[in-house]
Design goal:
Two copies of one chain form a homodimer. Chain A is mostly helical. The first copy, chain A, has a domain of about 45 residues: Transcription factor, MADS-box (SRF-like, 3-Layer(aba) Sandwich), CATH 3.40.1810. Chain A is about 60% helix and about 5% strand. A two-stranded antiparallel ribbon of chain A has the order 1-2. The relative contact order of chain A is 0.05. The first copy, chain A, binds a DNA duplex through helix 1. Chains A, B: One of its GO terms (molecular function) is protein dimerization activity.
DNA sequence: CGATCTATATATAACTG
DNA sequence: TCAGTTATATATAGATC
């Protein structure tokens, strides 16, 4: 917000960094106070400058809010590990939030054309995951039929390509071209990104195209 | 900041207040995260909604900052543990990584939008939404073989489920159980965001009833 | 530095589907 | 209710003093 956009990454020049720190810290506190007043919320903020100096904002006061928070997240004040666990939980929440943002941001760049291409795929906003990983136990006949049709289309597509492949393989130099290699790589890269979101949850891991398997 | 200026005083209508609370809370957290990244600061924020629900933001994590703060102000409340330190650190690393990705993605999105504005709005990034939409021209035989195997497995899986479906439909009461109802809803792709992220990829594909097979 | 001054980038109030 | 859009109010980057 200013004359020019600055990238959100560490400001290298310490003089600018210090100025920005002061300005933004006061901006943050102002926002916090507005949130308190407008919504009747209670907010505590603690900031440590890179130099280690502490600043804080609290409404009604930092300590009461911190106490309340710690009591909620650490029912027994003596079990430290649970405090750590809850800290992790918090982190996880943040992480998930950011992941969602990331996904949303990625979607934003995609064309509506692509949206429409996936007939029903309205689910653009959700985590990319492969539909065949979803349990099929509860599906109705209609849905199964749909899946079937899709698979058949897909099969034909692949078969056709397979055919082309076999033909072409007699002239080896045409086997892979640069463009497609790049495409494949970037696709695998996509999985890599969404993957980091999913692994943390543990159970469902998207599969890279060449690792496909069902068990 | 909006269509109209609102006075900084408690919002009376609870519906508006709730909306404002959500928006401003996320805005506050975003500002905080920018402050951390730009300036290398450490920030913890704790927010209690009027209803008493707790939200928090922390970089690197709420607990460590709160501890550090309390130590400076009240030596008796010293709580230290490194029990889960490494786990937290790991998470933090993930988090930071994703944050960077998010920022990068935002930049990318903006670039894309600019491109769109100036030129052909076509398929800017070549990444197909689903892997089967990716051009297969460049794939090697081995990869095609893998895909084929995958599809075959998938076909069998679907066929098996289809069978189950047909059998089960004769005893209607067993056709759906509570768990599956929810699953189907999200699978069909109503804009319901499923709680368990597991079905989020559900897209509905077109269908046809013959046998899928590969030869 | 720190306060002040713009031009811009962001956040968000109100609106919309 | 809930996400997305738009018009506007704020925050703030860079400049100047």
């Amino acid at each position: 917000m200013g004359r020019k956009r600055i990238p959100i990454e560490k400001i290298q020049r310490s003089e600018y960094r210090q100025v920005t720190f002061s300005k933004r810290r006061s901006g943050l506190f102002k926002k916090a106070s507005e949130l308190c007043i407008l919504c009747g919320a209670e907010v505590a903020i603690i900031v440590f400058s890179p130099a280690g100096k502490a600043f804080s904002f609290g409404h009604p006061c930092v300590e009461s809010i911190v106490d309340r928070f710690l009591n909620q997240h650490d029912m027994s004040n003596h079990v430290v590990s649970s405090a750590n666990a809850s800290a992790r939980e918090q982190q996880q929440q943040q992480y998930s939030e950011v992941v969602s943002q990331l996904e949303a941001e990625k979607k934003r760049g995609e064309t509506i054309e692509q949206l429409k291409r996936s007939e029903l795929g309205g689910n653009i906003n959700n985590n990319p995951q492969f539909w065949w990983d979803a349990p099929t136990d509860g599906l109705g006949l209609h849905q199964l039929e749909q899946i079937r049709l899709t698979l058949e289309d897909l099969r034909m597509k692949v078969a056709r390509k397979h055919q082309e492949m076999v033909m072409r393989s007699s002239s080896p130099s045409a086997f892979l071209d640069d463009q497609n290699v790049g495409m494949i790589e970037s696709f695998v890269g996509q999985n890599h990104i969404s993957t980091s979101a999913q692994y943390s949850g543990g159970s469902n891991m998207p599969i890279a195209p060449h690792d496909l398997c069902f068990n």
